[in-house]
Structure formats: structure tokens, C-alpha cells
Amino acid sequence: MIYLDNAATSFPKPERVYVGMDAFVRAAAANPGRSGHHMAVQAEAMIDDTRRLLARLFNAPRPERVVFTLNATDALNMAIKGVLQPGDHVVSSVLEHNSINRPLERLARDGVIALTRVPAGADHRIDPEAVAAACTPRTRLLAFTHASNVTGAIQPVAELGRVARERDALLLVDAAQTAGVVPIDLEGSQIDLLAFTGHKGLLGPTGTGGLAVGERADVDPWREGGTGGDSSSAVQPRELPYRLEGGTPNVFGIAGLRDGVRYLLERGIDTVLPHERHLLTVFFTALRQPDRFSFFGAERDFSERGGEGRVGLLSFNLEGLAPVELAMLLDEHFSIAVRPGLHCAPYAHRHLGTFPQGTVRISPGVLTTEDEMRAAAAALDELATGVA
Ligand SMILES: Cc1ncc(COP(=O)(O)O)c(C=O)c1O
After folding, report:
1. Is 373 in a helix, a strand, or coil?
2. 233-287 pLDDT, tens per residue?
3. Alpha carbon of 351 to those of 75, 323, 328, 345, 359: distances in Å?
4. Which atom of ligand 1 is nearest to the CA of 198?
């Protein structure tokens, strides 16, 4: 199998993730912070170590402000429902994943918040000036993806951070497609809330993710319960991470995530994006019939600009074959795994003009090889010839 669906979840993981996770959970998978015995202390130390590594990776102010969640969806819901109050206004965009769209839409439909969704430009980017213009005196939150999971375009988060400060709003960034791929500087980019998932670019297992909470943000818990600390209090503690971490954490998953992050820090986070862009450049160089496909401008981005301004994913269509059929043929005849459809981002496909069928998305990862990209190009050429 040639796995080109890393934007959905990364596969394979580096070997040390499997080995490290297995070794840790056999030795010390106790309930952290609960019991005080040796194994529980070891489990808690592992979790704190992972927090520390993530804070380093994202230049987050303090490790205790990195809170573990189930995934990016969980972190985005936690942030959105934890900061918004009745009467607040939110600015978001058409490029968002449903994990931002849906919680905001429900709050808007329930009359709790007012929501403005700004359009994307022809370059698939959000204009920070349009965001500033959309703000009202009641704007409390700006909620944007760092890179679209449909177009791959990296958004101007530092400028959005500036707009948020000027308007006294909070900036929530969905880093599902960028954590572990694009260097992120929480403090430098003035990001108040960074939602990330552990199972994509951070190379950990599914069921992991987190929310990094900047110093300006105060997030109310949307899940309350045991934290292992002071059980006598009738309410959730105020201190992070406990305020947002009720319940037993995913010790198995976080052990794997720690090894994913260690791998990235040792390899150098700066090497990941060039690798993925290089792989897509190899793909375009190998493709003999690029004109048969619609790439929404991506072919020029990769052949002329080395993929600058984009993460390593690519959406496209082939005339004569629905995305779902194309993906099925790739799977059945070439053993190539890709993702067709709307990618949980319906407004992004409306923006591209590809709603409701969507596109086919290929997404290499850190362990994808040039040969695999050439094989994908050859398979697509063969399919394009077949429908000519
Ligand atoms: C841009 C974006 N946001 C959020 C998510 C949700 O991530 P998760 O499924 O890990 O919650 C995804 C996953 O595909 C994504 O691509």
C-alpha cells in the first residue's frame, strides 16, 4: 500500500513511536496523579514531559498551559465553548473544517453568538484586512485554520494575531494540518488558543491532541470531573491544566505522542515542510499529463515556487471520473490510499467550486518516499489515459 492520506492521519509512524509506546505502557501505564505510588508518579512524569516538549515545539508560554484533549475537534470545542458568552461576535472563514464550523453554527443558530464567515481570495487565503473590517465592538473571537485541509494554503496567522490584539479579541488557530509540519510560534504570532491534533503531523496515535492556552485566554471547562489533585473542592480547580483536564487522560496515546514529538524535535521541525513540498514537486515533475487534471493553481505553486506558502497536500479532479470513483480505482488497482469528497470542509469546496462532489486529496508525510510519489503520478497518468 502506498499511503498518501497523511492529512487524515499519519501512517506509518516512526518506529520509535510504536516501540516507545509499547515499552512505556507495559511498564508504567498507571493512572497519573491519582494514587501517588511509583507507577502513577512515572505516568504523570511522562505526561508532564510531553507537555514540556509540546510547549517547546509551539513556543507556548508555560507547559501547564498545554492541555491534553482527544483530538483537534475536542480542543476546538473546548476553546469555542469555553470562551464565548451570550452576545459575543465571532469572525471565521469559509476555509474552516467542520470542527470549527459546526460548534459556531450551533451557537449562532441558538442565538448565543453572531457569526461572520469571511470569504477567501483567489489565492485561497484570508485577507487580515477583511477580518479587521468584519470585527464589531462585540467581537470576542477570531477562529481560523492555520492551513486549509482542502487547498493546503497557509494562512497569515501572525497578521490575524495582530488584528485580534487591535480589536481586543482572542485568536483561535486550528493547527490540525500544521502542528509538526509548519514551525509555530504561539507567542511570536500572538496566538491565544492553539488547537492541535496528535495523530497527524505530530506522529502520535489517534485519540491524542491538545489546546495550548495563551496568557490572555481564560477558558471555562466544558468537561468537569476528577483531576487527581484536591478532591475536597466542590468545583473544578482554577489552575491549568487541571481546569480543563477532568477525567483519566489517554496515557497510552500520550506515551506514543511523546515519541512522535521527540522524533520531530530531533529531526528538526524545519525539515518536514521542505520534505513534503519536495515530494509534491517530484509528483508534478513525474506527471506526464498534468493538463488533464484540475489542480486549482497548485501545479504552478509546486513547479515554479517549490510549494511556498502551502503545506504538502494537494486537491484535484480528473474530468470524467467522480472523486470517489478515482479514489476507489487508485485503491483497488494501484493500492494507493487517498481521500475523496468534501474533507469535512463544505464551504472550502464551495469556494473552489467543487461542492458537492469534492476533490481527491493526496497528502504525503514525513516517511513518504520519492518513488511512492512517482508511482502515484504514473497511476494517475494511466487512469487519465483510460478516461480519455
Ligand atoms: C483543518 C482541520 N481541522 C480539524 C480537524 C479535526 O481533527 P481531528 O479529527 O483530529 O479532531 C482536521 C482533521 O482532518 C483538519 O484537517
Report:
1. helix
2. 999 999 999 999 999 999 999 999 999 999 999 999 999 999 999 999 999 999 9
3. 26, 17, 25, 10, 12
4. 10
CB-based contact 115:108 (threshold 8 Å): yes
* Whether the CB of 151 sits within 6 Å of ligand 1: no
pLDDT of residue 123: 94
Give the nearest ligand 1 atom to 343 CA: 14
Q: Say if CB 230 and CB 237 are below 8 A apart.
A: yes
Residue 363 CB–ligand 1 contact under 6 Å: no
> pLDDT tens digit string along 192-218?
999 999 999 999 999 999 999 999 999
Is the peptide bond preceding residue 32 cis, with omega within 30 degrees of 0? no
pLDDT of residue 331: 98
Q: What is the mean pLDDT of the chain?
A: 96
Alpha helix locations (H) across 59-156? Answer: 72-83, 98-109, 128-134
- Give dist(CA 67, CA 3) in Å, integer: 30
**197 within ligand 1 shell (Cβ under 6 A):** yes
Say how far apart CA 258 and CA 47 lie, in whole Å: 8
User: Is pLDDT at 118 greater than 80 in this prediction?
Assistant: yes
With a 6 A CB cut-off, is 273 part of the ligand 1 pocket?
Answer: no
Asked whether residue 297 carries a pLDDT value surpassing 90, the answer given is no
- Measured in Å, residue 178 CA sits from the centre of ligand 1 at 10
Task: Kindly report the protein residue whose alpha carbon is nearest to atom 16 of ligand 1.
Answer: 149
Verify whether ligand 1 is closer than 6 Å to residue 101 (CB atom): no
Q: Measured between alpha carbons, how far apart are the two ends of the chain, in Å?
A: 26
